[in-house]
Amino acid sequence: MALADNDKQDGGGDDAGDGEQLDLASRLTQGHHQSLKLWLRMLSCTVKIENEIRSRLRASFGITLPRFDLMAQLERFPQGLRMGELSKRMMVTGGNITGITHQLEQEKLVVREPDPDDRRVYSVRLTPAGREAFATMAAVHEEWIAELLQGMSGAEKNQLIALLSTMKQHLHAADRA
Amino acid sequence: MALADNDKQDGGGDDAGDGEQLDLASRLTQGHHQSLKLWLRMLSCTVKIENEIRSRLRASFGITLPRFDLMAQLERFPQGLRMGELSKRMMVTGGNITGITHQLEQEKLVVREPDPDDRRVYSVRLTPAGREAFATMAAVHEEWIAELLQGMSGAEKNQLIALLSTMKQHLHAADRA
Hints:
Two copies of one chain form a homodimer. By secondary structure, chain A is mainly alpha-helical. Chain A has a domain at 63-176: Winged helix-like DNA-binding domain superfamily/Winged helix DNA-binding domain (Arc Repressor Mutant, subunit A, Orthogonal Bundle), CATH 1.10.10. Chain A is built from six helices and three strands, in the order ααβααββαα. Chain A has helices at residues 20-61, 65-75, 83-89, 97-106, 128-148, 154-176; strands at 81-82, 110-115, 118-126. Chain A has a three-stranded antiparallel beta sheet with strand order 1-3-2. In chain A, helix 1 packs across helix 5 and helix 2 packs across helix 5. The longest helix of chain A is centred in the first third of the chain and has 42 residues, at 20-61. At the A-B interface, helix 1, helix 5 and helix 6 of A face helix 1, helix 2, helix 5 and helix 6 of B.
């Protein structure tokens, strides 16, 4: 199966097994195709929404998605986050965390301070001005997401949330295995 | 609502409306929270899988995710893709497409040729060696995805595929509006 999120690729060809052995092999293959199809469909929805949010953030607030993401992660930790921890929590790849932090520091939206437990390590947190700036953007961001997903019913959204929660738990369990 | 995919954040506080007006407002707010929750859960599953695939690709084949993605896009277009078209089709952000293409060209996995319709534009395609190299990786990639999603039943996967298809159609419709 090619790596494309495309409905037309699932031919029924795999069903034409003759004999027990082949049936098992083709069932396995179908299961793999199903997983790949699910992954590619989820990836393509995610990329579509992410790109839309990326361009809206730029147009409305003149900021990049990694910068928004970095502020979003800090917002959850008023006491600050170590740089390494921050880096692990980012949801968007491709941003230069040190560079973004430096920029935000210059704009007085974050402060960098030596960690009280280990003076060699720096920890970053939002300033009150940073919290305020982020709150404004987060409210608009929430409206955008609601707008982008408005074609789905509340029931469909709840079903999706439940299924994605199941997926997340299993991914988590796989992590620890 | 903070920008975190966290079950504990959905307090029931919004339900405490008194009067019609407030009820409408709080229903709206709840709808927005539901959409944001869905988006954050989907994003966190996607990031988790993507990071796992990224590190496995590096460990098993010594390649980056953007490079794998670029080859995956080319694999679907044996006749080649223009650079601009290729760039639009990428599912992974943060890769330097010109750089990756140049690298793959040096390794004789892709060729770059002037477009027959417009000699000023370059088009890229996989060489037979590139197709072969990609096929090997794609087969292993499919196994990984199946393994990562093995905790979910076939029925759950089908439900997810159906719901994500609905989402994709609505996102598509919003594009054209």
